[in-house]
Specification:
- By secondary structure, the protein is α/β, with parallel strands linked by helices.
- It has two domains: 5-156, 3-Layer(aba) Sandwich (Rossmann fold); 162-256, ProC-like, C-terminal domain (N-(1-d-carboxylethyl)-l-norvaline Dehydrogenase, domain 2), CATH 1.10.1040.20.
- It contains ten helices and eight strands.
- It has an eight-stranded mixed beta sheet with strand order 3-2-1-4-5-6-7-8, covered by helices on one side.
- The radius of gyration is 22 Å and the shape is elongated.
Length: 259
């Protein structure tokens, strides 16, 4: 069966961008559910569809019910539903597919590997979509759907998807927090974060062509003690930052000391 209609459970960053991509590809978003009426209404307006904030009103007649809520809310929502005749898929990176097993006979995972924000559109054609399903038939249904919005579709089981999600936290969430720390340092000294943006672009661009190991530069890789100690002295009144600087510098040095 080809998936043509979707009920979207969730109205956050991922649900918003995935819903927009699916609608653009010609899918009918039959309904949006969110625990808060305002969030449900806003996304439904964006997707030109109906909405609800009551679990008992969730439309389970769609070809696919796509669960795009916080990891710890998946079971909470599904426990309120009778999904036995429903094709269910969740979008979580670290939640095992088997969580869905007690709710339906047809289930899988539809995990777009990207960082999403409601108000920043993304090119879904470039986003890897990681799939898993409890049967070959369900996998083919999800695969056909995924290829309608992305050119990068791959079957990845729950164990490997957990590792992928962990790597994504290091490569995205932690890196972005470092941008925040850099921004805070600059702001303390009346400097603008825009000064770092060409450096950030080049750093990200290099790892499109080089392995991250080969792209590494900086005083920690060279173990330039003079510069490292100067930096630590500048952080003398910010011991938490100094601890982070020391730990990360040590990790970089250990990775490259024999190279």
């Amino acid at each position: 069966m080809m998936i043509r209609t979707i009920t979207l459970i969730g109205a956050g960053n991922l649900a918003t961008q995935t819903g927009k991509a699916l609608k653009k590809a010609g899918l009918e978003i039959r309904q949006v559910y969110s625990r808060t009426e305002q969030s449900a209404r806003e996304l439904a307006d964006l997707l030109t569809t109906t909405f609800t904030h009551k679990t008992e009103e969730i439309d389970l007649s769609a070809d696919l019910v796509l669960v795009a809520v916080k990891d710890d809310a998946i079971e909470e929502v599904l426990a309120c539903l009778d999904c036995r005749q429903t094709l269910l898929a969740h979008t979580a990176g670290s939640v095992p597919m088997q969580l869905l097993e007690k709710h339906t006979n047809r289930f899988g995972v539809f995990y777009p590997l990207q960082t999403f924000s409601k108000k920043r559109d993304v090119d879904f054609s470039e986003i890897p979509i990681c799939l898993e399903a409890n049967s070959a038939e369900t996998l083919n249904e999800l695969k056909e759907l995924a290829f309608r919005i992305s050119g990068h579709v791959q079957e990845i089981d729950s164990a490997k998807r957990k590792i992928l999600h962990l790597a994504a936290v290091f490569s995205c969430n932690f890196v972005n927090h470092f941008y925040y720390l850099g921004d805070q340092l600059l702001e303390q000294h009346q400097l603008n974060f825009d000064l770092l943006k060409p450096l950030i672009r080049e750093t990200a661009g290099k790892v499109m062509e080089l392995r991250p190991f080969d792209a590494q530069t900086g005083p920690a890789k060279r173990f330039d003690e003079t510069i490292i100690n100067n930096h630590l002295s500048l952080l003398g009144n910010q011991p938490e930052l100094a601890e982070i600087y020391n730990f990360v510098s040590g990790s970089i040095f250990q990775a490259h000391k024999n190279s």
